[in-house]
Putative acetyltransferase YjbC
Amino acid sequence: MMVQSDWYQKLNDYFPAHEMKHPEQLEALVKTHPNYHKEETDEYIVLYAEFPTFVFIDYLLVTSRQRGKGIGTQVLDKLKQKKKLIILEAEPLDEEDKDTQRRMKFYLRNGFRKADRIVYTRQDDDGETYEMKVLYWPPFEENQKVIMDKMKKACREIHNFRADRYYGRPLADPDESLRLKS
């Protein structure tokens, strides 16, 4: 049975298709994964996993009519209050895509840093490789090897949650998708 909730449709309308998880996978994460959380209001939707030492933001969407009003910053500030490292992935800057520029500026303005030593590649359903950037907000100094290890945990536990059932393969094999530049 295909679950098509309103919040899923909003995410699907905004994020690139290759970044969207299967709707049933997201529903299962929200309902059964002990670390995965969904907060939804009329202004925003955030899906994230909270682990003992870090938070992984899977999706953050501020509704179009609310953008530019500080809502996204408020959501991030609420997560920052947990005093844990926050990790997320974002599309690389594309000079022809204003959304990638807006998203990157938003995260950098909110104190996130680019993990410039981490190379993160994924494959879409057609086997095409694409790159993602790992961004992080550190409540304390952290080296990028530690950040990469936490990102690997997010890949294993969140991206690959029941992935064989929904995709017939892991979505992001952390040992193949993530590496540290020398």
About this structure: The domain at 6-180 is CATH 3.40.630.30 (Aminopeptidase).
